[in-house]
């Protein structure tokens, strides 16, 4: 089927107009303040769309090809919580998180926070462990001990505390690095829970459940 020359010309014109506006924005020539704000808004929207499409593409690839993600999908199905890509939504987030889990809304993937596909894979597994715990234990997320246990397990089992990730964060401990990271990450997450945000509550909850929950590696045979 031959391409419509008028349609092709229109596409080329749009590309040219966008390039011209970009040049004007960089040089500051020929753009009013109103035009500049409008163009900045267009750029921001384009970048947000790009991040969303990248997140969804990585999500679909990982759900099909990642051994650990496909294992978690199978484990969730066996636990009575079968999910598909509709349950993992890509959305922009603030800088304090890369993902989230809600019993009512499923798994949130923070499209603007991933620095690699591997980072997104770890985040998906982290949140899927929360979902697994919710299915298996009927977790009360307002109970700080319940929440702390799931955060310990998710931080430990998802790859979030592997040595290379810790290096990126600026932590260089070699002795019991995994345990230290797991405790720290779990406390940070529990502190975000309004029910556990009072000073010292998250620290005490994580300390109380740490040993038993760190040693519970289900559905894995061992720490990934």
From TrEMBL:
Its main location: mitochondrion. Signal peptide: none annotated. Coiled coil: none annotated. It is a peripheral membrane protein. Keywords: Hydrolase, Membrane, Metal-binding, Metalloprotease, Mitochondrion, Mitochondrion inner membrane, Protease. One of its GO terms (biological process) is mitochondrial proton-transporting ATP synthase complex assembly. InterPro entries: Peptidase_M76_ATP23. It is found in: Mitochondrion inner membrane. GO terms for molecular function: metal ion binding; metalloendopeptidase activity. Its EC number is 3.4.24.-. Has a dual role in the assembly of mitochondrial ATPase. PANTHER family: MITOCHONDRIAL INNER MEMBRANE PROTEASE, MITOCHONDRIAL INNER MEMBRANE PROTEASE ATP23 HOMOLOG. This is Mitochondrial inner membrane protease ATP23. It comes from Glomus cerebriforme. The lineage of its organism: Eukaryota, Fungi, Fungi incertae sedis, Mucoromycota, Glomeromycotina.
């Amino acid at each position: 089927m031959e391409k419509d020359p008028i349609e092709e010309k229109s596409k080329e014109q749009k590309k040219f107009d966008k390039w011209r506006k970009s040049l004007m924005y960089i040089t500051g020539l020929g753009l009013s303040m109103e035009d500049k704000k409008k163009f900045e808004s267009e750029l921001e929207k384009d970048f947000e769309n790009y991040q969303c499409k990248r997140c969804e593409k990585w999500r679909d690839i990982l759900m099909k090809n990642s051994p650990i993600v496909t294992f978690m999908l199978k484990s969730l199905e066996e636990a009575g919580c079968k999910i598909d890509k509709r349950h993992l939504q890509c959305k922009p987030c603030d800088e304090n998180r890369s993902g989230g889990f809600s019993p009512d809304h499923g798994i949130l993937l923070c499209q603007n926070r991933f620095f690699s596909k591997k980072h997104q894979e770890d985040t998906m597994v982290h949140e899927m462990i929360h979902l697994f715990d919710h299915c298996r234990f009927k977790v009360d997320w307002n109970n700080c001990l319940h929440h702390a246990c799931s955060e310990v397990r998710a931080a430990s089992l998802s790859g979030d505390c592997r040595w290379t990730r810790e290096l990126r964060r600026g932590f260089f401990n070699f002795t019991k690095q995994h345990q230290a990271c797991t405790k720290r990450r779990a406390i940070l997450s529990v502190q975000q829970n309004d029910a556990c945000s009072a000073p010292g509550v998250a620290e005490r909850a994580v300390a109380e459940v740490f040993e038993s929950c760190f040693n519970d590696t289900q559905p894995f045979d061992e720490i990934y």
